[in-house]
Each structure stands twice: as structure tokens, then as C-alpha cells.
Write a structure and sequence with these properties.
By secondary structure, the protein is of the alpha+beta class. The protein has 8 helices and 8 strands.
Length: 261
Amino acid sequence: MVTAAALFAAICAGPVGGCSSPGHPSGPARATPSAAADGGYNTAAGGPTATPPTSIAPFRINGGIEPLDGLATAQKWANDVAAGRMDTLVAKCWTFAPERVRAMYGDPGWLANILATPGEPAQIGMVWSVPPGSVSITWEELRSDYPCPVVAIPGVIDNTLHDFDARHLVLRALSRQTGHPIAPSDTQANYPLGCEVGLSTVPDLTAELGPMRSFDPTSIRVTMSGSGDDSVARVTATVDGRTVTFGATTILTHPCISSIS
């Protein structure tokens, strides 16, 4: 689990997406998510407009002047991007909302161009940057069997909180709590979803939520407020016949649950 001290130490890590925080994919092997857990919301309106999947010639990730541990596994992701295998990318990068995956990875040509530039090591990961766009992979993510980079593409997708991020965050939390995580490795120990620093903290989401039998995925509703880095969300869902309300925000560009009532 990432500690508050570690999070604050990561503030100087560099460009957007170069910092690690609760909820960011890392570590365990990625298993294909269960079909039952998504509640059919993956095609919900309101997601970003991404370039339709296209294929290009395979490209190599430029790891920079020093050997990059994990580059071989990151190349598996790059090969899927080049081939336009969007369904595979959505399934493998399940810690992100499907809408975010489609937007981040939907332009293989743009990604090939930026990843052809030498990667730069930052405090907690590698960054490829052609301002204002960027691609970053944390060191933890590079140790996984299928690293999923954080991508910011001007005019397409940024790293602020969107309604689909908040919806996916709550979907994951409730799917875990009712015994049907969207992927076998999606656990509190592997992927803490509660905010660990800031004005509101939820250090142990499992304990905070308590026992739950079932929830209605179609009942998840998101209300956004604020803008840019100050965006926050209020998310409601029907759990065991009652309404549960979540607060969601971002810590160092990554979404987390800040309150439950």
C-alpha cells in the first residue's frame, strides 16, 4: 500500500501521470475481468471521443540511454496498440475505465511517435513527453506482466477526474465487496481504492463499506462538480436495497474514493 509519505514524496516526479497513488495499476499479474461485473455500463454516454481503432506497423518503445527493466513486457502493450486490439487493451487494462482506455490508446500513430523519443526516468517511473502530451509508466507498473501506461493526449483525454473514472471506481469497489471483483487480483491489498492523503481519507475501503450482499450496477449515478484538477464526483448506487453515496476525487492525478455515507 502506498503511504501518505510516499505519495507526497512523489509530487516532484515530473509530468502528468508520473506519480503513483491508490488505484493506479501495478504489481500483480493482470487477469481478464469477469463479464458479469461491468454491469453493462461500458458503453455509457459521456465518455471521451477517441479515434476509432486502427492498425499501424509494429513500433518499438525507446527506453532511453539505459537498459529499461520491464521494457519487454511494455512492448506487449505496444504491440496490441499497433495492431488496434482495443478489446484486448480494455480487458488487460481493467483498472482504468473502458472509456479512458479507448481514449488513451485509440491513436496508435500518436503513441508510436511519442514513444519513439527517448524515455526519461523520473522519481517513480518512466516518462515520454512531447508537451503538452505525455505517456508515463510507473516502476511498479513496469514490474507487472502487462504494463498499462497513463496517457495524456491534447484535445482527447487528460488526467483529471471524469464521470467515467468515478463510475468505474465505485463499480470496482462494490464488485469486490459483494464477492465478484472485476478481475481476480482486484483486491484491497493489491489495489487500494480509498484516498490515503488529503482532507478526506478512506485507508481501508473494505472495512469502511462493511458486509454487502448485492448491488445494482445500473443504479450507479455520477454528479460532477468543479473543473480541471479540482474536479470531484458524488456517486450513488443501490446496495442491498438502500442508497450508498460515495465521494470521489484525485490524488496526484489518480482517482480515489474520499468518503462513503
